[in-house]
Hints:
Layout: H1 2-15, E1 35-41, H2 46-60, E2 64-69, H3 74-84, E3 89-92, H4 97-102, E4 109-114, E5 117-123, H5 129-137
Parallel strand pairs: 1-2, 2-3
Antiparallel strand pairs: 1-4, 4-5
Amino acid sequence: MRVLTFLFLVSSLLFAYQKGDKVNAPQLGISQSGVYVVDFFASWCNSCKKELPLINNLSAKGVNVIGVDVDENIQDATNFIQEMGLNFKVVKDPKGEIIKTFNPPGMPAIYIIKNGKVIDTIFGAHDSIDEFILSKIGA
Length: 139
């Protein structure tokens, strides 16, 4: 069983966007110039709830943040976005089309994209995620 779990995790990472990969996700509106922080989250993700206010602060500081809410229920997504008071662009992905393209190994999942290519990924919860991201993008 452990071997199968390991193989599943390794195979899912092989198909996920990695550093250096060119991003093809027109739904996000990412241009081929500039730096973007793409954050996948959902209302049921407790770690996401802790990180989103810090991600929100990044947006207030001028960082291009694009959120992807993967809740299957649109009303749950809308309520959660309002509850969190998010001030950045959020794309709803109830059918999982965008998240399938990125294929992160879990959530929260953050992709840092520069000039259309992934320059870094952050999977799982991090304390002070805003400062961590700022150090990654050199801001």
